[in-house]
Amino acid sequence: MGACLAALIAVMTVLGDPGPGLTGRHLVVTLALAVFAGSAAMALSRPRKPSSPSQGLLGRIEVLLAAGFVGALVLSLMQPQGPGWLGVFLTAGAAAARVPLRRAAMLLALCLAGFVAAYLLGHQGDLANLITTELGVAAFFLIALLSRRLREGQAHAEELLAELAATRDSQIQAAALRERERLARDIHDVLAHTLSGLVVTLEGARLQLSRPGSDPDAVTSVDRALHLARNGLDEARRAVGTLRGDGLPRVEQLGVLTDGFARQTGVPCSLQVLGSPRPLDPEQQVALYRTAQEALTNVRKHARPDEVTVTLAYRDAEVGLTIEDRARVTQAPPALAASGSGYGLTGMRERAELLGGRLVAGPSAHGFRVEVWLPLDRDTGPAPGDHAADTVPTGSP
To answer: Is the Cα dihedral 118, 119, 120, 121 positive or negative?
Structure first.
């Protein structure tokens, strides 16, 4: 608004009489207009932030406003019927909006006194018109000051809301951290202790079955149960570490997972990476790693493969992981043990769907395959592909 008023004063001054020129009164109008326009432009272009009290008696913006006001007074003297007197309103309003209150009051007093002097020199009378204009300037000053107070109050309220939101987020994070710590304690105190006791019991049973005359199948079953119990204990400890903020599994650790599977089972297990690796967020990395981990556990429990392949594939819009076990002789899918029950596969599917992905599982030409695809752009949901149906045959791991 102030810039529009300054532009209006400048245009009306150019069209007034006497207009700008290079001689006599015209030169005075030119200089006064230049001082007014330049000072108003620089003052109004500065941010709406009050000057610091440490700047002395007058800050830079106050000097600019005062210079612009002097230029407007000279214009009103040169053009008695011109728009120069509007510069009083401009100076008063800008002072109220941009200058500390004490200095703004000083500029208002300067405007009122200067206008009285210019009016008396240029018009020689009409006291009622003078008083009306002075009251109008004071009212304009108060309105601009009120607008500034409202603007500052709104900015302060926005700051308080931002602080409140930050505090609320901190409280939510603290509550989530406390809940994770509680879950970590529960897992450690219940599941980990139970599995530790189970491992000790199975080790004792294995020692007893190692005596001459023991059933070899029973020894094999106990060895397998002991191995599963130890793996479960390791997973429980890893889950506790994750809940307590320890490092999360990453896709870079898939090689360690496949090597461990091959070493523990004696079945060759290879990892293949196709495409150019892309950045993955922590949730995607955990989902891919846990899917591979669960699928390899199912292979260990329910299949008798000759080899296992794990393939990590990057496409333009999605990343996929395929775990497939292969046997030279085609076998019917083994029945699920009571420990399997398909819940691991359900968990893998739910984890993928929460991230906007999909999971495909079922028999392949030479064994069983689990395939999961996650979108690289989480906002777009599942990317289109050639694996649209999620089919899980009865009795699959």
So the answer is: positive
Nearest CA to 303 out of 213, 247, 370 is that of 370
In this predicted model, what pLDDT tens digit does every residue of 276-316 receive, in sequence order? Answer: 998 888 888 888 998 999 899 888 888 888 999 999 999 98
Q: Enumerate the β-bridge partners of residue 358.
A: 373
User: What pTM was computed for the model?
Assistant: 0.40
Both tokens of residue 255?
């090689």
* Cβ atoms of 26 and 18 closer than 8 Å: yes
Domain(s) of CATH 3.30.565.10: residues in the chain: 251-397
Asked if residues 72 and 36 have their Cβ atoms less than 8 Å apart, the reply is: yes
**Assigned token pair, 33:** 């207009």
Report residue 134: phi and psi, to 5°.
-60, -45
Distance CA 260, CA 271 (A): 12
Closest CA to 324 of 274, 268, 286, 384: 268
Find out whether 93 and 105 touch, Cβ atoms under 8 Å: no
CATH number assigned to the domain covering 251-397: 3.30.565.10
Model confidence pLDDT, tens digit, residues 337-370: 333 444 577 888 888 898 999 999 988 888 899 9
Beta strand 269-274 with 358-363: parallel, antiparallel or unpaired? unpaired
Q: Label residue 210 left, alpha or beta by phi (over 0 means left) and psi (-120 to 50 means alpha).
A: alpha
383 neighbors 315 (Cβ within 8 angstroms)? yes
Angle (CA) 50-52-56 rounded to 5° is: 125
